[in-house]
Amino acid sequence: MGQTYVFECEKCKYHTKVSGGRAEGLEFTVQTIFCHNCREVRDAVTFAKVPLESPESVTPPSITQLINRLLLTGRVETRWQKYDLACVVSPQHVVRPWKDPGACPKCGVYLERSAFPFRRWD
């Protein structure tokens, strides 16, 4: 089960809702990234279960789409689709993996993680 936390910067008040690293669920896997162009910390989909007959895709679905869709397990034959780390704004943006504890993308102070998950997802 994957979990999303709220991360906040005490200095500049930047906040984001991300897993804080790699997180796996039943239907997809995410990796938290730092986008150098956007100066944002976000979760990027790295693996997702897709129907067997669906075409290969280089563009990952959004996390919101994956969380809100019905579970595929047991309904149709599926396969795992791998995606490269990419910013959701533009695949041409320069990104790198980000892991808790990590620096604020705006001011460089370490982000504080909430004590309890904001969301749990399968």
Describe this structure in words.
With 122 residues, this protein is mainly β. It has one domain (2-110). It contains one helix and nine strands, in the order E-E-E-E-E-H-E-E-E-E. It has one helix at 63-68, and strands spanning 2-8, 15-18, 22-24, 28-35, 40-51, 78-82, 95-97, 112-113, 119-121. Strands 3, 4, 5, 6 and 7 form a five-stranded antiparallel β-sheet that branches. Strands 1, 2, 8 and 9 form a four-stranded antiparallel β-sheet that branches. Strand 4 and strand 5 form a beta hairpin. The radius of gyration is 15 Å and the shape is globular. The N and C termini lie close together (5 Å). The model has no long low-confidence stretch (mean pLDDT 92).
The 3D shape can be described as globular
Helix and strand succession?
Answer: EEEEEHEEEE
Ranges with pLDDT <50 over ≥5 residues? none
Number of structurally distinct domains: 1
| Tally of DSSP helical segments | 1
N→C terminal distance:
5 Å
Question: Rg to the nearest angstrom?
Answer: 15 Å
Helical proportion, percent range = under 10%
Mean pLDDT: 92
User: What is the number of beta strands?
Assistant: 9
Q: Strand content of the residues, in percent?
A: 35-45%
Largest sheet: 5 strands, antiparallel
Q: How would you classify the helix and strand content by structural class? A: mainly beta
